[in-house]
Amino acid sequence: MEGGLQKPTRFDIDWKNKDYLDEELFEKELRRVADACHGCRRCVSLCNSFPTLFDLIDESETFEVDGVDYKDFSPVIDHCYLCDLCFMTKCPYVPPHEWEIDFPHLMLRGKAIKFNKSKTSFRDKLLTSTDFLGNIGSRKIIAPVINFFNSIKIFRIVLEKILSIHRNAKLPKFSSYTAKLKYKNLFAKQTSSNKVAIYTTCYHNYNEPSVIDDLVSVLKHNNVDVEVIKDDKCCGMPKLELGDLKTVEKMMQHNLAKFKKYVDDGFQIIAPVPSCVLMFKQELPLLFPANKDIKLVSQAIHDPFEYLLKLHDNDNLKTNFKNPLGSVFYQVACHQRVQNIGQVTKKILELVPNSNINAIERCSGHDGTYGVKKETHDIAIKIALPIVKEYKRLESTQFTSDCTLAAHHVVNAMGNKVLPTHPITLIKNAYGI
Prior knowledge:
Elements: H1 23-38, H2 49-58, H3 74-79, H4 85-90, H5 103-116, H6 122-127, H7 130-137, H8 142-150, H9 153-163, H10 179-182, E1 195-198, H11 201-206, H12 210-221, E2 225-228, H13 237-242, H14 245-264, E3 268-270, H15 274-287, H16 292-300, E4 301-302, H17 304-313, E5 326-331, H18 334-337, H19 344-349, E6 355-360, H20 377-394, E7 398-401, H21 404-414, H22 423-431
Parallel strand pairs: 1-2, 1-3, 3-4, 5-6, 5-7
Helix pairs in contact: 1-5, 12-22, 14-16, 15-16, 20-21
């Protein structure tokens, strides 16, 4: 019997148990889950992990899972970028079903085993070291140099040969004037019952701090006291996807000491990247279930539009918009979808008069690193093509996504014919701030 009427449940990730990295036990569970997936196949259109798995089975001598050599499952694990959509939207066998299948967290276990065996490449370790890259790349002299060379085709070809970073992948530009630098003296005045501490995230601190500018402006316009969290680190999502769980724990411990102070002082925390919010809402509580402080932070952290919708529901959101948005094509980010908060961004954008918001719930395929790697960039572009096709059909005048990296990747798949705008920037423009 498949499916059920009960809400899907997630089990804690027992990664500190000695059996977690036991390859024999992992292989046994991997084959059990692969056999269930082989008999179902409704996830085949989500990412390249499932087609890879099914091809392995179909091309084996037995046409069954037992015909696949264990080492050949490695690409299946590599192609999973933990978007969670199979668990949240497709799989009929997730808990409380008796089969208790959680494909993304099974793949996480495989990634942890690979990392523990020191089989992770230097490139992958570098790409997921966002704090290190940001600190180096955002220096006043270095930022314009990196941005210049990343725009030169011959340099990108050399970069591809040395680090296997695809020559056509959209690489983030660095800003020498980071969000934390700009707002180092911004402190909440404690004049409002609505107080927000902004977790800038690595990307919007080092690469596109203008989004933090717009977020601060929108919050202040709605009489929200604002501070920017200063001495934080990466949320840990890139290292999670690498299977480097010990580094995830170190980042969590550092951030928790900072975040907890804000929560205790009555602040809500906002992060403008869905993956970073999801990390604190879901992944860290599952990785560290006994940590009570993580649970408190997970309840206090919000997507920007989730927070704006709460303001609206309490009649605290200003709706005196001056400028229409026109026709907006909106890609709903995977890591926002799996937060189970609904299409909060679309609901707020639709408050703007004379605006038409067309939402599409399809994965961009970017994942932060998957879309820039030489071996997976073309696959990531292929995953984004349904979004491109729908955008062209609707002929919208603006394109937006809560995930800025996803937006740039989709635009790259479009042939760079449109400039993406973050949804919070659309709201700021609608206010006429």
